[in-house]
Amino acid sequence: MAYHYWQGELVHLRAIESQDIVFFESLDDEVNCNVDMLHFPRTKQQITSWFEGQQQRMLGDAFRWMAVNRKGEIVGTIDTFECNRRNGTFKYGITIAEVFRGQGYAQEMIRMVLQYYYYELGYQKVTPHVYSFNLSSIKLHERMGFMKEGQLRNMLYTNGRYYDEIYYGMTKEEFNHRYGDRN
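-> structure tokens emitted (183 positions)
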């Protein structure tokens, strides 16, 4: 079988396509809250406009991938943003549909994106953030070897209270140490 950079053992990452709007329509309030975008109910046209804007806002090295499992089901999405080539830093956000959580998809998606940004684009550090109520994401990042670099208090208001924003970081060297140097 031929090697494909975006093919993992569990999932392959591909560009976002117009039919993917169905996935975004299906996200529940819990997932939307985790990515800081709990909205008033929206019409199909508003969702379509948001979706089209997402495709257009990807500038430079920012990108959004759809993650599809071996059965052809969309399990989630991962996107990079605030990509700064000069400093070699970037961030990412990840969403996994509830029925697919805890099955290793998120870890594989993150590793594939980090490999690409470190080994192909020359970035040297990633700094994702997680809200303090998202215990599964906190555990995921710590299990993967991310270092907690800071915590901003009371940064998100949802469900009647404020939550902290926790910043994690992983350098290329730390990634190499944990997952193997490809150079």
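The chain is about 30% helix and 30% strand.
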